[in-house]
Amino acid sequence: xxxxxxxxxxxxxxxxxxxxxxxxxxxxxxxxxxxxxxxxxxxxxxxxxxxxxxxxxxxxxxxxxxxxxxxxxxxxxxxxxxxxxxxxxxxxxxxxxxxxxxxxxxxxxxxxxxxxxxxxxxxxxxxxxxxxxxxxxxxxxxxxxxxxxxxxxxxxxxxxxxxxxxxxxxxxxxxxxxxxxxxxxxxxxxxxxxxxxxxxxxxxxxxxxxxxxxxxxxxxxxxxxxxxxxxx
Amino acid sequence: xxxxxxxxxxxxxxxxxxxxxxxxxxxxxxxxxxxxxxxxxxxxxxxxxxxxxxxxxxxxxxxxxxxxxxxxxxxxxxxxxxxxxxxxxxxxxxxxxxxxxxxxxxxxxxxxxxxxxxxxxxxxxxxxxxxxxxxxxxxxxxxxxxxxxxxxxxxxxxxxxxxxxxxxxxxxxxxxxxxxxxxxxxxxxxxxxxxxxxxxxxxxxxxxxxxxxxxxxxxxxxxxxxxxxxxx
DNA sequence: TCAAAAGTGTTCGCTATACACCCATGG
DNA sequence: CCATGGGTGTATAGCGAACACTTTTGA
Lengths: 232, 232
Known about the structure:
The structure is a homodimer.
Chain A: E1 8-10, E2 16-26, E3 31-37, E4 47-48, E5 51-53, H1 60-72, E6 78-85, E7 96-105, E8 119-123, H2 134-148, H3 155-158, H4 165-176, H5 182-192, E9 195-203, E10 209-215, H6 217-226
Parallel strand pairs in A: 2-7
Antiparallel strand pairs in A: 2-3, 2-5, 3-4, 3-8, 6-7, 9-10
Chain A binds a DNA duplex (27 and 27 nucleotides) through helix 5 and strand 10.
C-alpha cells in the first residue's frame, strides 16, 4: 500500500466538496434517472448518482457539467443547482459536502460516455437502493422538478425536437404525477402559444399517425420578459 | 505579526466553505434586509451579509442558524437554503464557497444580537454597495422569495402574530413588486381560508381602526396535504 | 366639512373542466 | 367490422379583475 501524501495545508479545517448530478431522461413513457455502479469503496457495487470532487479552478456548475459529459457524452444540457447537502456523516471517509444538480437530457441523444459501461437508466419508480444519502438527493430533485415546471417549460428539454402532443402530455403527467384530460391538455397547450405546429406527422402507435410540434423559444422568451406562469 | 500555523492537512485541495444569511424583515411598509459592517479586511468597513465559516461538526443549516442568532438574538425562525455560490475568485484570500440561506423574521422581535452594534436594517431598494459577490446573493434571495411565495404562505413569517389586511397586502406587494386592488385582495385572502378574523381592532393610521387577523396554521397544513398553490 | 383610511358587493369575461363524436388504421 | 388511438368543439361553473359607495375620524 502506497504511503498517502498530505500535500495541502490549511489554518482551519476544510470540508471536502463534491458535486452530484441527477440526470433525468424521458423514454416516451416514463421519467428515468441515470445511475452508475460504484467501482470503489465505500458502497462498492452499489448504485449511485454520478458525482465527483470539485476542482479548485472550476465552479460547481462546471464540475457538474463535466460529470454530465462523462456519463452521457453531452457537451451542453439544461442543468440546475437545487440543493447542497451537508449532513455531518453523510460520507464515512471524511466530511464531504455535496452540491447537487439536476440535468434534463434527451434520452435518445445519450450515446453513453467514458463510464458508459457502469451507467444505466432506471425508471423513477423502480430505482435500486442508492449509496450515501443519494436517495434523499434524488427525492429532492424530483420535488424541485415538480415545482420548477410551473415557472419554466422544462418539459421541452426532455423531448426530442419534434414531438407529438401525446408525448408532451405523458411527460407532464410523469413529472407531476397526475392525469390530464387529453382534449383539455391539447387545447391548453396550443392556446398558451409555446408550441409551433408542424405539417409533419409520424406514427407513434401503429393505429394512426399524429401531428408533430416543436417548442417555440422566441415565444417563450417573450413570455418570460412579460412574466408568466404555467398553470396545471 | 504572528506566525500562521497550518494544522489541517489533506491529500487533495479543499475549498473553504461559509454560510451566508440573507435576513429579511418587514417594517410594515417595506421589505428590509439586515447587513453588517465588516470589521476586518478584506472589504473592511464595507456592508455585507452576515456569514461565517461552517464548523466541521455542524450542518450548513446549523451554521446559518447560528449566524441568525448572533445577529438577531432569535433562536428559531423560518430559514431556507437557496443557492451555493462557487465562483472561483469570489474571495480574494482563498477559494471559498458559500452556502446561502434566507431567513424571514419579524422585525419588531429583533432585539439585536452580539454584533448588534455593526448590524443595520436597509430597505431592499436602498442597500449600500456590498462586499464580495453579496449583491448577487441578495438578488437571488429576492428572486427566490418571489417564487417561493406561490407555494408557501411565507408572508406570515414576516408579520406580527396579529395583523391587518392592509399590512398583509403591503407585504405581498413589497415582495412581488406589484399593486393589488384592495377589495379584490381582501376577498381573495378571506376566501382562501388561511386567515382567522379576530374581534379585535387596532389603529394603524390615525383615521380609522382596522380589524386584525391571524394566520391559521391548521388550515395551512390541511391545504398542504391536499396540494395547493397560492395564485397572484 | 373635508380628506384619508377602511369596510363591503356586484358584474363581466375568461379559463378550467367535464364531456361526446368522428375519423383513420390494422387486425 | 371492430378495437384502438387520435383529432376536434361545446356547455357550465367558478374565479379573477374591474369597479363605487358608505362610514369613521382627525384636522
